[in-house]
């Protein structure tokens, strides 16, 4: 019987969920989703193109911004096939291996983005605390090493998850809560003991999102302390204004991510709609808004973008 279950499991599929009860208007719902994806991909691609082609933007802040744009592009590309597949063709099925691959990329890219936001907070702290040594502290080789460490951390922490999920038997209803795969969502429908996965999932959340958000908070405490010590009011305001875009990016990323994690762990029996909408906000809004926020708040970047499109 166990062998039979394993055989069925290896060829099994999961059923993804879009917006329950709205199947008749999926085609109309797909229009804003398509617009969000197009704006996200075009916006982040333009940011990357401008930073790469303009030598005056080869500064630490903009290099970190390009890293953020790459992770946002990755998150958009990782979720496009299943979300639009449901809305366009009502194709809810996803194979087990494809589901594991998708959750690997979604989680690893999310943790890499968390690391990038932490590095951007450190960038702002150095720029305000020690502006004369800013370029000598955050050199391109050092930034590349920071980026490599963060990528390795994200990949290494998520790498065990597919193997941990593969050892389970899935004899319950195979309907997932979202139109894409997440570890905590797949884990919940297993009929095996999920204690190890639950503990490890909590560990990686605390060691990445928890630690990064705490260090970002400490960075801003130090930034505020440094800014308040500046004698000139105008200089103080100018220094704090350079942090506005990053603060928006932090709130856009961490708020829905932490909320979704809390709902998955402690929201049993609650309505699925808040969980579904928060899941869409978590993956769709940051890649959409980050290039807009930075383009609006960075006069130099905005001028370069206008120049490209005017030409």
Give descriptors for this structure.
single chain; two-stranded antiparallel sheet; 13 helices; 2 strands; 77% helix
Topology:
Blueprint: H1 2-10, E1 13-15, H2 26-53, H3 60-89, E2 93-95, H4 96-129, H5 134-137, H6 140-158, H7 160-166, H8 183-188, H9 195-228, H10 233-241, H11 244-266, H12 272-297, H13 299-310
Antiparallel strand pairs: 1-2
Helix pairs in contact: 2-3, 2-12, 2-13, 3-4, 3-12, 4-6, 4-9, 4-11, 9-10, 11-12, 12-13
In brief, what are we looking at here?
Residues 43-294 form the G-protein coupled receptors family 1 profile domain. The chain has helices spanning 2-10, 26-53, 60-89, 96-129, 134-137, 140-158, 160-166, 183-188, 195-228, 233-241, 244-266, 272-297, 299-310; strands at residues 13-15, 93-95.
Radius of gyration: 21 Å
Q: Which descriptor suits the 3D outline?
A: globular
- CATH homologous superfamily - what is it? Rhodopsin 7-helix transmembrane proteins
Q: Specify the CATH architecture.
A: Up-down Bundle
CATH class: Mainly Alpha
Structural class: mainly alpha
Domains, number: 1
Number of helical segments?
13
Query: What's the rounded overall pLDDT mean?
Result: 86
Uncertain runs with pLDDT below 50, 5 residues or more? 1-11
The portion of residues forming beta strands comes to under 5%
Element order, helices and strands? HEHHEHHHHHHHHHH
From the 3D structure, determine the CATH topology.
Answer: Rhopdopsin 7-helix transmembrane proteins
Task: Name the helicity range.
Answer: over 70%
């Amino acid at each position: 019987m166990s062998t039979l279950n394993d055989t069925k499991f290896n060829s099994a599929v999961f059923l993804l969920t879009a917006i329950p009860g709205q199947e008749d208007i999926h085609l109309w719902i797909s229009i804003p989703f398509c617009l969000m994806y197009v704006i996200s991909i075009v916006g982040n691609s333009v940011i990357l193109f401008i930073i790469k082609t303009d030598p005056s933007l080869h500064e630490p802040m903009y290099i970190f911004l390009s890293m953020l744009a790459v992770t946002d592009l990755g998150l958009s590309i990782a979720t496009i096939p299943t979300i639009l597949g449901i809305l366009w063709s009502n194709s809810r099925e996803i194979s087990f291996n494809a589901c594991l691959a998708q959750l690997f990329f979604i989680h690893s890219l999310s943790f890499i983005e968390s690391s990038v936001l932490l590095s951007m907070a450190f960038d702002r702290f150095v720029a305000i605390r020690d502006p004369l040594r800013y370029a000598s502290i955050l050199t391109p080789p050092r930034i590349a090493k920071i980026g490599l460490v963060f990528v390795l951390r994200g990949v290494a922490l998520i790498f065990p998850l597919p193997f941990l999920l593969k050892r389970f038997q899935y004899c319950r209803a195979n309907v997932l809560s979202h139109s894409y795969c997440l570890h905590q969502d797949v884990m919940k429908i297993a009929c095996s003991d999920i204690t190890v996965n639950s503990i490890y999932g909590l560990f990686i959340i605390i060691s990445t999102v928890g630690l990064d958000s705490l260090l970002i908070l400490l960075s801003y405490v130090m930034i505020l302390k440094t800014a308040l010590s500046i004698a000139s009011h105008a200089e103080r305001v100018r220094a704090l204004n350079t942090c506005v875009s990053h603060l928006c990016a932090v709130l856009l990323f961490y708020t829905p991510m932490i909320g979704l994690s809390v709902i998955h762990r402690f929201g049993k029996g609650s309505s699925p709609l808040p969980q579904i909408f928060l899941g869409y906000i978590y993956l769709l809004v940051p890649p959409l808004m980050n290039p807009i926020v930075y383009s609006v708040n960075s006069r130099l970047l905005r001028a370069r973008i206008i120049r490209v499109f005017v030409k």
